[in-house]
DNA sequence: GCCGGAGGCGCC
DNA sequence: AAAGGGCGCCTCCGGC
């Protein structure tokens, strides 16, 4: 293991360590000799934060096989102790271990340094100290706190690997054809308006909307649109598209069309293209594990919300293919596993789990089975979905009991965990209102508020156990695939979105890559759900364009 | 004029 | 098939 830290002047200092954290030799400046000596297959890096420490190494041509990311590990360990939002630097880890107040996080610490040998910026130590010693001690402390919990160890390893993958994916970028994107914009919005303003299609729709109402309406203003519908006799409480869809009025069609297109214009229009696409690659900043459930987030570009209409712009380079793989119906399968519901696990053997559910208890009605299952996992209580959940409850008492139990725990203000042991955050300051509303002398208004807040919390914990366990599985899947892809020249992970990933690879190795993706999914199933009969199949599809994958 | 929250919608 | 979970991002709006 190679501990790698920044000095106050920004230079990098490294210290070889054993896996037990014992020093081997002396710390010294990272130099070209170190880089030449690196064992690309096995070296494990120890550093404060992958997002900060890895980019300069990547720029120097280093590919980290594995790492121990102190911040990633600390976030998970802190969460299990009920502490969210505490600083996660090596110095903070040490301070807590020694009973001192943890130093505040500095914003500059979170920004990647530009180049390897011309680093500048803050570091944790005064100049005369060895910064790798702080890292080493933080590592030892975390190792001791993690203990011998195998599931937790798997989670930490997978999350560290995910951090590497996230940083690499941001640097590599998603193949993106500017010309195709521009053609889509031209087709749907018309030519780009000079100097801002509405594109022609949107301007025409705005006129149509005002004409349909018979008075001027600004479709960009929800307040205005709502008032307009009220004025013509439709007392809607919001202007969400599914609310408007239910109205019978000539303005409905242009309003809905406007909503759809203005979204494309503002979220993924010409400005987006200019800001985020460079050299036929869309470079987002991926933040692995940034969501409390363990899902990834992104900063900038909205990479996890690429609209379907633009997936035709995601095209493999000449001579390359995209291998697109998603885990089919992952969340109900995960529920079958974590709840140990053998009936649901048996159904998970089918390619289409919802069809299996439909045949089992919904008279073959697949749509009803799907709505019911989603309702069960999201805590839906009203409408058709809420009603259908009772069928599931009768049919799969073990699985439904599991999510119901998680909801009850949430309503009591308790914390729940993912299958590998990621903790959800404890209730926040609003829980005081729940306590007040549950007291004998509470007013009706206080009781109502308490019920609503407790219900919100219950739906959150109900969903957390499923969503976070699915994120556990996906992280192990991704980590395993990333390792196996090192054997395939030219193959790169370019996208990951909760339960779906894309590899960009030379055409001749596309088939082997698809096999590796399936193997990694099977390995993740065995590791995350040992002994379970559940199936978590993935469906790799080899395409030129992302849009052709589904 | 600035800024945080709300409204709304894209993805899973 | 309902409007239940998690996000990021944009615009509007209202309070200061």
From TrEMBL:
<feature type="domain" description="DNA-directed DNA polymerase family A palm">
    <location>
        <begin position="307"/>
        <end position="509"/>
    </location>
</feature>
<dbReference type="GO" id="GO:0003887">
    <property type="term" value="F:DNA-directed DNA polymerase activity"/>
</dbReference>
<dbReference type="Pfam" id="PF00476">
    <property type="entry name" value="DNA_pol_A"/>
</dbReference>
<keyword id="KW-0548">Nucleotidyltransferase</keyword>
<keyword id="KW-0808">Transferase</keyword>
<keyword id="KW-0235">DNA replication</keyword>
<dbReference type="InterPro" id="IPR043502">
    <property type="entry name" value="DNA/RNA_pol_sf"/>
</dbReference>
<dbReference type="InterPro" id="IPR001098">
    <property type="entry name" value="DNA-dir_DNA_pol_A_palm_dom"/>
</dbReference>
<protein>
    <recommendedName>
        <fullName>DNA-directed DNA polymerase</fullName>
        <ecNumber>2.7.7.7</ecNumber>
    </recommendedName>
</protein>
<dbReference type="GO" id="GO:0006302">
    <property type="term" value="P:double-strand break repair"/>
</dbReference>
<dbReference type="GO" id="GO:0006261">
    <property type="term" value="P:DNA-templated DNA replication"/>
</dbReference>
<dbReference type="GO" id="GO:0003677">
    <property type="term" value="F:DNA binding"/>
</dbReference>
<keyword id="KW-0239">DNA-directed DNA polymerase</keyword>
<dbReference type="InterPro" id="IPR002298">
    <property type="entry name" value="DNA_polymerase_A"/>
</dbReference>
């Amino acid at each position: 293991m190679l501990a790698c830290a920044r000095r106050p002047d920004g230079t990098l200092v490294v210290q070889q360590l054993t896996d037990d954290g014992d020093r081997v030799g002396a710390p010294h400046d990272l130099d070209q000799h170190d880089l030449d000596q690196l064992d690309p297959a096995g070296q494990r890096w120890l550093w404060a934060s992958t997002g900060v420490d890895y980019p300069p190494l990547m720029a120097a041509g280093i590919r980290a096989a594995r790492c121990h990311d102190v911040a990633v590990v600390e976030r998970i360990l802190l969460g299990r102790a009920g502490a969210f939002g505490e600083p996660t630097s090596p110095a903070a880890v040490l301070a807590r271990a020694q009973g001192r107040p943890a130093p505040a996080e500095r914003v500059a610490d979170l920004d990647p340094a530009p180049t390897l040998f011309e680093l500048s910026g803050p570091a944790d130590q005064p100049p005369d100290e060895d910064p790798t010693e702080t890292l080493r001690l933080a590592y030892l402390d975390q190792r001791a706190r993690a203990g011998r919990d195998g599931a937790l160890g798997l989670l930490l390893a997978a999350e560290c690997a995910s951090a590497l993958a996230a940083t690499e994916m941001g640097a590599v970028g998603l193949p993106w054809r500017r010309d195709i994107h521009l053609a889509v914009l031209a087709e749907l919005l018309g030519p780009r308006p000079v100097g801002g303003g509405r594109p022609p299609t949107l301007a025409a729709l705005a006129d149509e909307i005002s004409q349909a109402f018979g008075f001027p309406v600004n479709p960009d203003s929800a307040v205005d649109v709502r008032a307009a519908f009220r004025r013509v006799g439709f007392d809607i409480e919001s202007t969400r598209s599914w609310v408007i869809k239910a109205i019978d009025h000539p303005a409905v069609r242009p309003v809905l069309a406007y909503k759809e297109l203005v979204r494309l214009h503002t979220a993924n229009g010409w400005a987006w293209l200019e800001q985020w696409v460079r050299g036929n690659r869309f470079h987002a900043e991926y933040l692995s594990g940034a969501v409390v459930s363990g899902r990834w987030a992104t900063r900038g570009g909205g990479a996890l919300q690429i609209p379907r209409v633009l997936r035709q712009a995601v095209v493999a380079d000449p001579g390359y293919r995209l291998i697109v793989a998603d885990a089919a119906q992952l969340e109900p399968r995960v529920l079958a596993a974590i709840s140990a519901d053998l009936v649901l696990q048996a159904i998970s053997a089918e390619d289409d789990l919802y069809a299996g559910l439909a045949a089992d208890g919904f008279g073959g009605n697949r749509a009803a089975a799907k709505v019911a299952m989603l309702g069960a996992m999201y805590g839906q209580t009203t409408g058709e979905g809420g009603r259908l959940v009772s069928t599931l409850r009768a049919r799969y008492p073990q699985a439904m009991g599991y999510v119901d139990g998680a909801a009850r725990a949430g309503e009591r203000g308790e914390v729940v965990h993912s299958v590998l042991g990621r903790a959800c955050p404890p209730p926040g300051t609003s829980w005081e209102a729940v306590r007040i509303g549950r007291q004998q002398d509470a007013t009706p208004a206080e009781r109502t508020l308490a019920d609503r807040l407790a219900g919100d919390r219950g739906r959150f914990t109900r969903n957390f156990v499923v969503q976070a366990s699915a994120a556990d599985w996906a992280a192990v899947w991704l980590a395993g695939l990333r390792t196996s892809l090192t054997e395939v020249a030219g193959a790169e992970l370019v996208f990951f979105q909760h339960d779906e990933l894309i590899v960009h690879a030379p055409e001749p190795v596309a088939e082997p890559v698809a096999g590796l993706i399936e193997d990694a999914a099977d390995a993740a199933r065995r590791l995350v759900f040992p002994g379970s009969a559940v199936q978590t199949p993935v469906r790799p599809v080899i395409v030129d364009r992302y849009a052709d994958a589904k």
